[in-house]
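Inverse folding, one chain.
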C-alpha cells in the first residue's frame, strides 16, 4: 500500500476514534459501518456492534489511563480500513469524503489589534505583549 493510502487509513481511524467520544457517534458509526460492510460483504449491523464494542473498550482504556489499549482500538480500525481499501482501491475517494464529513471542524484563528495605553506613567523600556511588534513609539506618552 502506498504512502498516500496509508495516510488516508490512518486519518480515517483517527477520525473514527475521535468521534467515539462525541454526540455524533451514532451517525459516525452508521456511516463507517456501511462503508466497511460494502467492502467486506458483511452485515452493517454486525460492523456497528463491533464499533460500539470498540467505543466501550476505548472509554474504559481512557478512564484507566491505558494509552496502549486506546492505541490498539485505533490500530484495529486502521487495519480494517486498510483491508477495505486493498479489497476496493476505488473506495479511497469515498473514504476521503467520509473523513471530511466526520472530522471535527478546524477552529479558525482570529487576529485583531490590541491597543495598550499608559496614563500618568513614564515607560522607558520596551514592552512586548505578544504577536507582531508594529507601530511601537518608545518615549511618547
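Residues assigned per position:
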Amino acid at each position: 500500500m502506498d504512502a498516500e493510502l496509508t495516510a488516508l487509513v490512518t486519518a480515517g481511524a483517527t477520525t473514527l476514534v475521535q468521534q467515539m467520544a462525541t454526540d455524533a457517534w451514532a451517525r459516525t458509526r452508521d456511516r463507517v459501518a456501511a462503508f466497511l460492510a460494502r467492502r467486506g460483504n458483511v452485515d452493517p449491523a454486525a460492523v456497528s456492534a463491533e464499533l460500539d464494542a470498540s467505543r466501550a473498550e476505548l472509554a474504559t482504556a481512557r478512564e484507566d489511563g491505558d494509552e496502549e489499549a486506546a492505541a490498539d482500538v485505533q490500530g484495529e480500525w486502521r487495519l480494517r480500513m486498510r483491508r477495505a481499501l486493498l479489497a476496493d482501491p476505488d473506495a479511497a475517494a469515498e473514504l476521503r469524503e467520509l473523513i471530511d464529513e466526520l472530522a471535527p471542524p478546524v477552529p479558525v484563528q482570529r487576529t485583531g489589534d490590541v491597543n495598550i495605553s499608559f496614563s500618568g506613567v513614564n515607560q522607558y523600556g520596551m514592552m512586548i505583549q505578544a504577536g507582531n511588534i508594529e507601530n511601537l513609539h518608545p518615549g511618547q506618552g
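The two ends are 65 Å apart (CA to CA). The chain is about 60% helix and 0% strand.
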